[in-house]
Amino acid sequence: MFKFLFLVLTCGVAAFSYKYFEKSYLSKTVIARVSLKTNCDLDLEAFAVRNLSTGEVREFQHGEAFIKASLADNLMIVLSEQFEQVSFEGEIVKVEPKLEVFQDCEKPVGLEQVFKSFNDQFASK
Fold it and tell me: Domain 29-104 is in which class?
């Protein structure tokens, strides 16, 4: 009985410790260096990277952008704010201190994106 109780207690302490250190690691703020490769006809300066948690947008210069984010955040490749009339949602990636992202412009728009567009357009607000 005591062995079982000890085992359960040890597992509980291990799980708590793991979550504590994971949370402290993910809350760490970094300046991510994002390198963009693409097969698009657009120049790399036409793209930007957006922090989905804070909404901060940084444009690419010479194929690289630097953006402040925590390790728990996600980044999305978007078009530069100069092209606000055009909607484009690119790759979504988890934050790392150094990222290399490939944006594929030849991939056809999937059914998932079509339904997302319908939901965004016709959702009751």
Answer: mainly beta
